[in-house]
Design brief:
- The complex is a heterodimer.
- By secondary structure, chain A is of the alpha/beta class.
- A five-stranded parallel beta sheet of chain A has the order 2-1-3-4-5, with helices on both faces.
- In chain A, helix 2 runs parallel beside helix 3.
- The relative contact order of chain A is 0.18.
- By secondary structure, chain B is an alpha+beta fold.
- Chain B has 19 helices and 19 strands.
- The radius of gyration of chain B is 53 Å and the shape is elongated.
- The chains are: A alpha/beta, B alpha+beta.
- At the A-B interface, helix 1 of A face helix 13 and helix 14 of B.
Chain lengths: 124, 596
């Protein structure tokens, strides 16, 4: 079962996504604190990170930079999970095959499709 | 004045000639009669002198014929004299001398008469054929006694009509008449008196009069028609006045620059620059340019030296006297001033315009920022709702959901989806309006795109759709966005019509304006003419109050579609008739440049 690290400071979304991810066959690891999430990524890397953007003290982009730059984890799939309309363009500009985007709000089929793109041979 | 002409076979004889002949013949007859009587009474010595009378008379009127007659008469007299005096040589000599004297007298008279006549004729010719109007008038009473045709024609009268008038009655303006009377009283000779006379039509005719006294009673006067000149002068004056008013009151600054110095500046420029007129004239225009723009400006004026009739324009910052900076659009055009090449410069103060543009840009930027933030804030709370609804619907048994509840949940899902869609459209439009988006161009055949859309969208179930697009048509465009445009137009056509729906998608074949034209025609409710301008505006619906509930749409998709077409350098236009349908036409350039 693929382990998915969800970095998200909105408790409502965190609760819902936990159920949703479990339902479609993934193992969610929920981290509301972005700095703690960085430690988690370093110490026990997940199979994929679902990453909110608007967070403090560092935002999703800075998280992404640190993971890719400082931790040398260029292979770790990271899906930005955001309602911000400008993220799509920015992600396209990154031109990084291991970074994707899921626009909030996301439906189950969209979530599934998004995850399966990075985690082929999905569960079930 | 006309003269009666009599015809004698081939010859034409005027009345005057006829009278003269009769007189000559009568005089001759009298002379012959007197001679005969004196001859019969044997007084032979005085009779021949009598013949001087008809001969001289004839010579006066007909100098040449008079000489012939005199010569003929002389010969006859001599012959007759010889006949009587032969063989007395002294008497014969006397007769000869008399005959010669007789002929010489006739010749002398004819000579002088001829001389006088030709002189008179010359003056007559000058008078009648002169390009000047000439009149004679009396000093007392100003009655016109003589006129040539020219003068009459000048005032559009016949010569007879002029002769029945007084000169004083011809003046157009009373004041000018008084001036004339004053002048003629004081000076015997006046030239270049310009005044207006009345024509027969009652209009004014400008004339230049010169007169001088011929004798105590008569004044001769010439008149030149100067109407054309006066009109031209007036026109010229009007023009000058017009140009002066134009430049002085022009809302744009106008300068004339010659040899790099300003030689004229209108009040708008003094106001624009803050300098007084005297501080401007004679200075170089360069002195008013903001130092930062000097380089660009010297390049610009370098082009003036070409002297080619090229008008140029460019934007420059100007430094005011109070150190304020104004931006002006500068137009220069070569002109001729006082016979030398110069440059006319128009300055359009665009500072205010730029300030407003900047403000609008900032406002738009801020508005876009707000829209983006709002969209973000609206989308985030939708996530749990959408997620949970998805979850419940995907596993009704697991959550012990009965069919009825599932239906309700599905309806909720539809609403959430619609809200998501509206927010997404708002965002897309705001991004499109920012102009920051690039189209990603590719080449693709048009027909499969449209057919593919129809196959997957379910539109075919809702309407009878015909597609006539030649399979050879290949477009260069942003494929995904163009597909969305078609989707919007199709969904619009379906939403604003009732079954039985009929939609025709047609490619206009043979257009040679460099554009693809694809129209989508429906048989729907149409758009009222007063709304047709607005349908591409965000959130505008034709007759929104009535329709929005019934047809349940938020009008953003058309705005987006139009923006996408415009991003490609194309457009979407619409023609519509209420209750019979609308035709939306997508125009896309065949060749799209990447930065379009």
């Amino acid at each position: 079962m693929h382990k998915i690290l969800l970095v998200e400071d909105d408790q409502q979304i965190l609760d819902m996504m936990e159920i949703l991810l479990r339902k479609i066959g993934y193992e969610p690891v929920l981290v509301p604190d972005v700095l703690e999430a960085l430690d988690r990524v370093r110490n026990s890397p997940p199979d994929l990170v679902l990453l909110d953007i608007m967070m403090t003290p560092i935002n999703g982009w800075e998280f992404l930079l640190k993971v890719r730059g400082e931790y040398h984890m260029s292979d770790l799939p990271i899906l930005l999970f955001t309602a911000s309309p400008e993220a799509e363009d920015k992600v396209a500009q990154l031109n990084d095959p291991r970074t994707g985007i899921l626009q909030k709000p996301v439906s189950i089929p969209e979530l599934k499709a998004g995850l399966e793109r990075f985690l082929p041979g999905a569960p079930r | 004045m006309g003269e009666r002409i009599f015809r004698f076979g081939q010859r034409q004889v005027s009345e005057t000639d006829l009278v003269r002949w009769v007189v000559i013949l009568s005089l001759t007859s009298c002379c012959i009669l007197i001679s005969a009587i004196t001859f019969l009474h044997a007084i032979p010595y005085i009779n021949y002198q009598l013949f001087f009378i008809p001969i001289i008379y004839a010579a006066y009127f007909y100098p040449r014929q008079g000489i012939y007659v005199a010569a003929g008469a002389g010969v006859v007299y001599q012959a007759v004299g010889y006949f009587y005096t032969y063989p007395n040589p002294a008497a014969m000599l006397g007769v000869t001398a008399e005959a010669v004297f007789f002929i010489i007298t006739a010749i002398i008279i004819a000579y002088f008469i001829n001389k006088i006549r030709s002189g008179e004729a010359l003056y007559r010719t000058v008078f009648e054929h002169s390009q000047l109007g000439i009149i004679l008038f009396t000093r007392e009473g100003f009655a016109i006694t003589e006129t040539n045709d020219k003068f009459a024609a000048m005032l559009n009268f016949s010569p007879q009509e002029i002769l029945s008038k007084k000169l004083t009655g011809l003046f157009f303006i009373e004041r000018e008449k008084e001036r004339f009377l004053e002048r003629i009283e004081k000076f015997p000779e006046v030239s270049d008196f310009e005044t207006r006379l009345s024509t027969s039509g009652g209009e004014a005719c400008w004339v230049n009069l010169s007169w001088n006294r011929v004798d105590e009673l008569t004044v001769s006067c010439t008149a030149v028609n100067i109407n054309a000149r006066k009109l031209a002068e007036k026109l010229n004056n009007d023009n000058m006045m017009k140009y002066r008013q134009l430049t002085e009151n022009s809302p744009t600054s106008i300068l004339i620059v010659q040899k790099e110095k300003i030689i004229y500046a209108n009040p708008t420029f003094t106001e624009f620059s803050g300098y007084r007129s005297v501080e401007v004239i004679g200075r170089e225009l360069t002195g008013f340019i903001d130092p930062g723009d000097l380089h660009k400006f010297s390049e610009f004026i370098g082009r003036w030296a070409d002297r080619r009739p090229v008008t140029a324009q460019a934007e420059f910052r100007f430094l005011r006297k109070d150190s304020g900076v104004r931006v002006a659009l500068l137009f220069s055009s070569p002109i001729i001033h006082a016979g030398n090449p110069a440059t006319m410069i128009n300055l359009l103060d665009i500072s205010e315009k730029l300030r407003l543009e900047e403000k609008i840009r900032m406002d738009n930027e801020r508005r876009r920022g707000i829209i983006i933030t709002v969209a973000h804030e609206l989308r985030t709370p939708l996530q749990p709702i959408l997620g949970y609804l998805n979850l419940l619907i995907s596993d009704p048994e697991g959550f012990s959901i009965v069919d009825e509840t599932k239906k309700i949940l599905e309806r909720c899902l539809v609403s959430v989806d619609r809200e998501r869609q509206i927010i997404n459209q708002m965002l897309e439009l705001s991004v499109l309006e920012s102009g920051k988006l690039q189209v990603s161009l590719s080449k693709f055949p048009l027909e499969p795109l449209v057919k593919g859309l129809l196959d997957t969208s379910g539109y075919l179930d809702k309407a009878d759709i015909t597609v006539s697009i030649p399979p050879t048509i290949v477009m260069t465009a942003d494929r995904e966005r163009i597909q969305n445009v078609f989707d919007s137009l199709m969904s619009n056509a379906i939403n604003y019509s009732k079954p039985p729906r009929k939609i025709d998608i047609t490619y206009r074949v043979g257009a040679d304006d460099g554009f693809h034209h694809i129209s989508i025609q429906d048989n729907g409710i149409g758009i009222p003419p007063e709304s047709i301008e607005n349908i591409f505006e965000p959130f505008q619906l034709a007759d929104a109050s009535k329709l929005s509930r019934k047809y349940d749409r938020i009008g953003l998709s058309l705005s987006i579609a139009k923006k996408v077409a415009q991003m490609h350098g194309g457009d979407i236009t619409v023609q519509s008739m209420v209750n019979s349908g609308s035709t939306f036409t997508l125009h896309l350039p065949k060749e799209v440049s990447p930065d379009a």
